[in-house]
Amino acid sequence: MQLIHLLIATGVIACQGCSQLGQVHVRNWSPDASPANFSTKIVLTLDQGNAGSPGLSLWSVDGRQVASIDCEITARKTSKWTLGEVTCLAPPLAPGNYSLRFYSDRSCGSESYMPLKGTFDMIDPPHLTAASPAHGPENAETVITITGSNIGGPHVNCEFTFPPATGAKFGCSMDASTDSAVKVTPTSAVCRVPSWPGPLTQYDGKGGFKPLEGAACGREVHVQMTNDGRVHSMEPLVFHYDEAMQVLV
Description:
Structural class: mainly beta
Low-confidence stretches: 1-16
CATH topology of the largest domain: Immunoglobulin-like
Radius of gyration: 25 Å
Largest sheet: 6 strands, mixed
CATH superfamily of the largest domain: Immunoglobulins
Order of helices and strands: HEEEEEEEEEEEEEEEEEEEEE
CATH class of the largest domain: Mainly Beta
Distance between the termini: 92 Å
Shape: flat
Oligomer: single chain
């Protein structure tokens, strides 16, 4: 009899736990689009409740479940002023629009299931193979031709990211830059790489600026391209800045 009571009590506790988890509310999630055939992290922000063992499923427009994901709690809601966060790693998927269903606790099954508004769009991005020239002077813009495939769309832009030098405490005076592509074809586009931004600076108190102590800007700018402003090329393409005394002619 005691064992029966214990089993009943355990069941009640489990049901109560699932009932409470059903009160979890997702405020938003991002991103809403990702490059097709690449894995991506989907981050959900919770403004009510805490997840137990969260999960996420993705469904195609024809009603097929294409992925079932175990998610990770990356932040917990501890008060009405803090937000919870859940991170889910979506697998590589074919181009298409997918609906999302969030489970605040996978062990509770349908009791913790909630559909999310909107769709998660997998978009085939441009694919880049080379930039020519692959290097240029640090103190001037360089016009480069990017070659690849699947280039073209309503917003074809080249995007440049300036990483800090290895081991630097601070990085470049500019983190990123965007330039509209010209002479766009399905296999190529022309963009202008800005001059090297140099290290992060600070006011020197004498009307000028000097490099911030510990700042060092890397000389390889990461080059990406977008067709639509939503997803970006994933290939590791770089452009190298030559030091002024080493410029090749």
